[in-house]
Here is the input.
Amino acid sequence: MRDFASTSLASTLADAVPARRTDGVWRSAWRRFRRDRTGMTSLAIVLAYALLIACTACGLLAQRWQDEVGVPDAPPSFLRSAPTAPPGAALPASTSAPAAADVDISDVDPLAPRYKEWNERAAQYHARTAPIAATLPLGADRLGRDVLSKALKGTQISVSVGVLAAIVATLIGATLGALAGFFGGWAGDFVEWVYNVVTAVPDILLFFAFAAVFGRGISTLVLIMGLTGWTGQYRQVRAEFIKHARREYVRAAEAIGASASSRMFRHILPNVSHVILVRMSLMVVNFIKIEVILSYLGLGVATDQVSWGTMLAESQSELILGHWWQLAAATTAMAVFVTAFSLMADAWRDALDPRLRQ
Amino acid sequence: MFAYLLRRLWQMIPTLLGVVLLVFFLFRKFGLDPAQTLASLNASPREIAEIRAQLGLNEPWWVQLALFIKGIVTFDWGRSWATNETIAHLMATRLPATLTVTVPILVLDTLIAIPIALGVAYVRGSLTDRMIMIGTTVALSISFLVYVIVGQYLFGFQLGWFPVQGWSDSTLTNLVVYAPLPVLLAVLMGLSPQTRLYRSFFLDELGHDYVRTARAKGLTEPAVLLRHVLRNALIPILTNVGLSLPGILIGSFLIEVYFSIPGIGREVLLAVNRSDYPVIQAVTICVAMLTMLANLAVDLSYRALDPRVVLR
Here is the structure.
């Protein structure tokens, strides 16, 4: 994408001023970003996560996360390097088979004539018994589900909820901010009133109120966070639009007859899009954290889904018994992603707006 | 001054009206039917109709809205659907527990974060600064939930320094015995964001000319930092503390839920889980009022901190 300000002016004044090609905002930002080692490292981590999430979403990974593949609370493989039998099978053979079992009681057993028939009938059905592992790469939870698969699936759910909510909140916030900042007047006053109302109630209370009436589930969660979390984006976009609406390039566009919507979206929007993008990435981190807490409180994802929040909620009772692996898996997956994502957002901010760099 | 106060209070009315409208229509439009919720599962249609009549649900919406606003204005918040307790009584009995936990959190967080942030800002760019900044980034990326789960397990269960959870009728016992663990965990959690924020405030101030002037006239470094930089940075810090004031009412809701502390945050969550709409509505409107009053108090305190500020 090229800098619209310079191109629109350049095209209108093509005869008068020879157009000088410079690098666009995005290209020069990318050049600055590439020099930032922390930024590049965190970008690589975020891309790796994105790859894992894409694979999980397509069903290539962790599709069967709900299956019971290990013994309940199976420890991670690296804890038990020497294979030991699961606790139930560890009984000595001598005690499990009493010696007197061979006595023939078919004379007194009233069911004896029917055993053969039953056995034949039972043979018609094939009971598939999946092998139950004693240890799993990252252990198992209370129901014997693989923690690694759960962590992958949970990452997919938590991150997509955060990203989708940030997109919804950005759409609402940026649209309202653009309208209020560009037009002002009574429309601006009205939007400002809505903003005041929404910010008068603390976010978490708004989440509770919305959750109380809308129920739970991923789409509800995205909707709730989008409807309540747009205020920061609105504030920033409004300020930018107020600033830009008076700039010369917008006046010039107006002079050649550009419509209001064209000025808003074709001229101003590309020049403030980096602000929107940075604010949006900060929102992703925030929404992920909120999702975790709401899911823990039972107001987040539905009970047949897994997210970092539900994993942490389960791990609370497991930890008391000394089963720390699910807690560790969810915490690590979340901490690495959130750290990388925030560092990446910081690096983008520095690269896109060098004036902000302290 | 008086005129300023009056005008600010006057300006709150439209916002408050908006909050009331939001709460009213949110629950009316999307919520469950109150009569169905209140009546037991096998209630007859006649009983439901009676409850509807009693609640005024058969009236047109504007009459209901007027009744709702009248209740708010006369401080008659109604009764909880779940326990039939009046909401005023409910709030008054739950508030002390919430304050016992949240006030120490707010005070300790602020008092600990300010010196750390000032120190870090003073040695900015050094290894210490960078390590602390990386540390706070990592600390921020770990969910609050993990702090609480691991903290309770480690300090309460394994080390046995604190009771795992509990609450008593005596405020002193609560403050000394039961509150310390939740407070400690919340302070640990709150320290990272506060330190980062205050560091940026201090950095801002350290870049000003008056700092150079103060050094040039031979003031000692402690005098420059404490008497000049700290005092100037207090305005943004105070704003931040003031804005978090209403949050302390419900901000510690996770702590309250996790440690079974009978405070307002836990009560709201209970209300959400049992669709006890009057409680949610009343708490939302109350907290909105408190938020606006806190904003006003912050603006008024600027005047006390900085004589140059003129309130208009």
Observations:
- The radius of gyration of chain A is 30 Å.
- The interface with chain B takes residues 193-194, 196-198, 200-202, 204-206, 208-214, 285, 289, 292-293, 296-299, 308-309, 312-313, 315-316, 319-320, 327, 331, 334-339, 342-343, 358 of chain A (CB under 8 Å).
- Chain A is about 65% helix and 0% strand.
- The mean pLDDT of chain A is 80.
